[in-house]
Amino acid sequence: MKKTHTTRRAMMAHSLALLGAGALAAPAADAATATAGAWRVVFQVSDADPKKWGLTLNNVKNVQQELGAQHIAVEIVVYGPGIGMLLAEAEIANRVIEAMQAGVAVLACENTMRAQHLSRDDMIAKIGFVAAGVVQLIKRQAEGYAYIRA
Fold first, then answer.
1. Which residue range is the domain that position 7 belongs to?
2. To the nearest whole number, what is the mean pLDDT of the chain?
3. DSSP string, 60-111
């Protein structure tokens, strides 16, 4: 009985030592991951409010400045009433274009576009498209993306 107790104690000590080593290594792993560009965030915009769009675009810029644009993948998924802000003549079109030039993927929901009788030609040039905006958000969250709603 004593031998079993000693063996369990040794196994427990070994396990705790491994956990401790893992905890100490975690900050280094986070730094390495960030350097490798593994920070990922997806922003949802489903409102037509230019102020919310401005807030989202400001947040995107802040994230890129803080973490380094080369270290983070940023997507903005747009559906519902927010889709109107991706029209080529939208008042914030220039800011959206600036964000895309800074490496941000802007994705329009084709379900919403169909419902609003919009074509790809109506939209800001070079944006991306997804079949369903909500499904894109689900996929990105499952892939570990941070999720931000404006």
1. 1-36
2. 83
3. HHHHHHHH-GGGEEEEEEE-GGGGGGGBTT-TTHHHHHHHHHTT-EEEEEHH
